[in-house]
Amino acid sequence: MTVTETASEWQKAAYIAGQAADARVNVELETEGMTLNIGPQHPATHGTLRIVVRLDGEQVLWADPVPGYMHRGYEKLCEVRKYPQVTTLINRIDWLSSFANEVPFILAAEELLGVEAPPRAQYIRTILFEMARLANITLFLGDMGAQLGAVTPVFYAFRDREHVLDMIESATGGRFHPNFDRVGGIKDDLPKGWIAEAKDVMERVRVFCDQMDQLLVGNEIFQTRTRGIGVVPSAVALDYGLSGANLRASGVDWDLRRDDPTIPMAWKHADFKVWTHPDGDSFARYWVRLQETRESTKIIDQLLDDLPAGPIMTKVPRIIKIPEGEAYVQTENPLGVMGYYVVSKGDLGPFRVKIRTPSFNNISIAPWILRGVYVPDVITILASLYFILGDIDR
Amino acid sequence: MSDAPTETPDAPDAPAEEAPVAVQESTPVESDPVREAIVTQLSGAFGDAIIDSHIARGDLWVRVANDKWAEVVAFCKATLGFRFFDFLGGMDWLNNTNLSGEKVWDPDAEKAIPADMSTGYAGGDSRFQVLCRLFNVDTHMGITLKVDLTADAPTVATISHVFAGADWHERETWEMYGFNFDGHPGLRHLYLPGSFEGFPLRKDFPLLAREIKPWPGLVDKEPMPGEEADEEEVPE
Q1: In whole angstroms, how far apart are CA A122 and each of A173, A189, A305?
Q2: Is the N end or the C end of chain A the one with fewer CB atoms within 10 Å?
Q3: DSSP 8-state class, residue A277
Q4: Is A319's CB within 8 Å of B215's CB?
């Protein structure tokens, strides 16, 4: 009998003994199941989401999210408002990137009306859309650190997001809720000196991304707590309708900004890369969003350089009456694919608006993804899925 | 400032110019061979269960018979490659709301379905419909599937076993419209409290905010130019 064989025999015996001991302990320490209530108030929920979790020791048996604490009934309210009034409501769906919420609705109305915004308006729309993305995602990039116990990144995020919000405010007048998009164009042109200032801000955001790279992505604790945690295979992600960075982190190469040239926006004039990650874990979702932020700053830089001259409003009647029809327009919003199914019966307001929000689908995977994970991972997984409560509850 | 302002944004792929035609009775306005092939494929597999279809502005609507709903959705996913679940929602075609601000809801009035109820693209035989939107992430095409539900007992088969994401959407539609999804694992309230009565998104459900107080925009509004003629009636 050689030495290695002896060693392996010994290891095998030790393993069996260990298993037996574990089994004995498990019998002796029969743990009772426990139901843990997470939320409705928790920093990881960006609002008030309650999650009922059934635990066996440290492991989750099942999880059941309970949304509805912020349900405002926007689909019903849209039915009793005129088209220009609806944008005020839908600004509040995903409150961190309000301008991006307005765009798909206005595009659906324009499609039914048969008009298209002039090129300059399309460019400014796209620039503000991407700024809304920056305002949203920079917060995520810092906040993800806070969920893991790193306090510094979130201060960096709030600091640099403020510069982006300043740019949005100086162009639209609204820091959070611009209400700037109109059927047929946009409300105002950009103020003087805005372009140069916006480029400085883009530079700052890129520096911020590098800081996040150094502070979090390379951090050993961050990697241990996110790599291999909350893995979503691409087939499951498509089944649940996950979209945006969550889907791309599962390896599905699909971005409406690049893949849908029929959307009358200026993304087709910009050169950018759509990042994907094969892993599908929490780390991949963070990493994809970090790369997206960088691409987003590049898009804004390019569009600011090529900004065409011309009008910002096309000719539309003063009283907007949309002809009868149905249209569904979806765009690649910061949180994922957002779409509005607008049904018009030729009235001043929509007959029915079905709002497809990304977070609703993104969080509906929670019962699946949380099954069997450990309690501390619940928070990191939810944080990496990244949802805004207004976007779930509408 | 490089692009000339005179450049027209109209690309040849923008058929939106043909949009404001009022009612197109499910006749394709422009040739769209790719989507027509999908309809042919569906009709070949399901025959009469594909009741109607509509192609407009690079989008596709297909109306499906109620008893083949789940099968058609499963076929779209497995064979046609519509693997991305977009959304599922309800639809109430009752002509009951308008923007006039008048009280549109009267509990004493009998709830008759207006004769001129229109039912959108690909038609409809009933007041209630369920819409389901799927997307193909490889060919970048979307499809909207519609199914009629009877007005007195709206029921349709669940598709939550085909698309796991439909679970929550069906729960939402169940509580907002009162549609029953046959075979759903657990139709529970999602947004509303458990004691809530009524189905808020049905057109005959009153929006109480408007019933109690007239819409402020209507009380003190100035007439828009060209609108003076019909400005006499102001709701109390």
Answers
A1: 19, 12, 14
A2: N
A3: -
A4: no
Model-level pTM? 0.81
User: Å from A122 to nearest chain B CA?
Assistant: 10
Q: Is A325 on the interface with B (CB under 8 A)?
A: yes
Q: Domains along chain B?
A: 32-97+120-218 (3.30.460.80)
Chain A residue with Cα closest to B103: A80
CA neighbor of B132 nearest in space, from B155, B154, B165, B93: B165
Using a CB–CB cutoff of 8 Å, tell me whether B140 touches chain A.
Answer: yes
Distance, CA of B103 to CA of B115 (rounded, Å)? 21
Q: A361, B85: Cβ pair inside 8 Å?
A: yes
- Per residue of chain A (394 residues), what is the pLDDT tens digit? 455 555 677 777 877 877 777 766 555 555 677 888 887 776 666 767 888 888 887 888 888 888 888 888 888 888 888 888 888 888 888 888 889 999 999 999 998 888 889 999 999 999 999 999 999 999 888 888 888 888 888 889 988 889 999 999 999 988 888 888 888 888 888 888 899 999 999 999 999 999 888 888 888 888 888 888 888 898 899 989 899 899 999 988 898 888 888 888 889 888 899 999 988 889 999 999 999 999 999 999 999 998 898 898 888 888 888 888 889 999 999 998 999 999 988 777 888 899 999 999 998 898 898 888 888 888 888 888 888 888 888 8
Question: ipTM of the assembly?
Answer: 0.82
CA distances (Å), origin B94, targets A165, B60, B87, B201: 43, 23, 22, 11
Contact B163/A79, CB-based, under 8 Å? no
